[in-house]
Amino acid sequence: MTGRTLAESAKAAAVRPALRLLREPPEESIPKLIDWAKKFDREGVLTSQIGGVEAVLDDPNWAGYIKSLWTDIDEGVRMKVFENFVVNSALIGMPRQQRVKDEHGCSVPWAILMDPTSACNLRCTGCWAAEYGGRLNLSYEELDSIVRQANEMGTYMFLFSGGEPLVRKRDVIRLCEAHNDCLFSAFTNGTLIDEDFAREMLRVKNFIPAISVEGFRAATDDRRGAGTYDAVVRAMDILRRHRLPFGISCCYTSRNVDVIGSEEYFDQMVAWGAKFAWFFTYMPVGAAAVPELMVSAEQRAFMYRRIREFRKTKPLFTMDFWNDGEFVGGCIAGARSYLHINAAGDIEPCAFIHYSDSNIRGKTLLEAYKSPLFMAYHRGQPFNCNHLRPCPLLDNPDALRRMVHESGAKSTDCEAPEDVDVLTGKCREKAAAWAVKADELWQTSHPKA
Fold first, then answer.
1. CA quadruple 61, 320, 325, 342: dihedral positive or negative?
2. pTM above 0.85, yes or no
3. To the nearest 10°, the Cα dihedral for 366, 372, 374, 379?
4. Listed residue (99, 17, 138, 101) closest to 335, CA to CA
5. Cα 230 to Cα 21: distance, rounded to the nearest angstrom
6. How far is the C-alpha of 221 from the C-alpha of 61, rounded, in Å?
7. From CA 232, how far away is CA 230, in angstroms rounded?
8. Which of 37, 76, 342, 399 has a Cα-to-Cα distance from 363 of 20 to 30 A?
9. Which residues of 372-392 are buried (b: 16+ CB within 10 A; e: fewer)?
10. pLDDT tens by residue, 363-381
């Protein structure tokens, strides 16, 4: 691990007994791991996570889910993920992040999302990446530098997007191998996952894909192209047979929300073998955007209720990027918890906010964290006291408009730079409608707020 202090090295060494517990059967190892974590976590970094695990162990649904992390996943992968996620990213990384925050008065992210390439083997309806082609790429050396700089400040979680990140699968694996103390993931269409890549994943042990699926065959192929659904199902079958963990990434739109929020679809994700699911709502970003795909306030409320309902009954860890703002204190972008670096090197607050005043080819990560745009995020968060309205674009468009203008940030769209007034204008009507519904939901769940 980069620049590990004596105290951090001692902490890592003290975790070795816990790693050995991961080899035992789950009914024996899980209670022992909880006891170990309580004694070990003197700084309280894992308090909420420990409490969460304890709370669900008596629930047959969640107890079964936790046990499946033993029965369904390769032992070596399970141990590596635990070490990198719990030890490096949380117990060592988070205190290091806090020291940098305190010293420099800025945000430091827990995770970095970066695009190795703008190239993609599909052309999905309404996707801005389809406009860029394969002209933009981060070199392996640039990706490596991002990871090394981030490690120095305590960030050990990295996600890839694009484009299709697995167009660069060799460099992805090379990066995983070079930084085996980090955990990597990718938002991928899944069509490039094959037996050879699965074997490479099993070898490095620190890469977990999140495969994009739009629902069942009709909806997926409608947006992503004929045959995509079958290719995705084949990829998940390969991963399951190799006992590799994977998740699903779902974009719900006005056209597919009834399917994405159906019990049938949740059951299918479990049957596919997914261990987690990320939910995103459609954002009208870029010249090729289709605003008609934005969900209505009623449809967004439907997803709010369905995801919470199925958390109680389905063995699947889920997170809605917008509707779960109440669990993370609002917007997590702008380096508060994560940021995005596009394939041109522009350091953006969010994957959906294509404005920047910094580029990795001209600034260090720390300089970017202290830039006017990121400091505007730092000062402005949360953007709404109702955390069901977290986003400075979708929910509070004036907040993004103000930050971009005041910071002098420029559009990073390489095909058709988008004026922030035009972009926020596309969200204004939806934001107003959601405000009414979100305030009703917030008052119901937080009557004293």
1. positive
2. yes
3. 120
4. 101
5. 38
6. 32
7. 5
8. 399
9. ebbbbbbebbbbbebbbbbbb
10. 999 999 999 999 999 999 9
What is the rounded CA–CA span in Å between residue 399 and residue 396?
6
Cβ neighbour number for residue 202 with a 10 Å cutoff: 16
Which one, of 206, 199, 204, 224, lies nearest residue 214 by Cα?
Answer: 224
Beta-bridged to residue 160, according to DSSP, are 114, 186
Those residues with Cβ within 8 angstroms of residue 349's Cβ, 6 or more apart along the chain or in another chain: 333, 334, 335, 339, 340, 355, 373, 374, 377
Element (H, E) at 208: strand 207-212
Q: β-strands 347-348, 247-252: how paired?
A: unpaired
- Give the SS3 label for residue 188: strand
CB burial of residue 87 (10 Å; 0-12, 13-18, 19+): buried
With b meaning 16 or more CB within 10 Å and e meaning fewer, what string describes 294-333?
A: bbebebbbbbbebbeebbeebbbebbbbbbbbbeeebbbb
Write the DSSP string, 311-345: HTTSS-EEEETTTTGGGTTS--TTTTSEEEE-TT-
Residue range 37-86, pLDDT digits in tens: 777 767 776 667 777 777 777 788 888 898 999 999 999 999 999 999 98
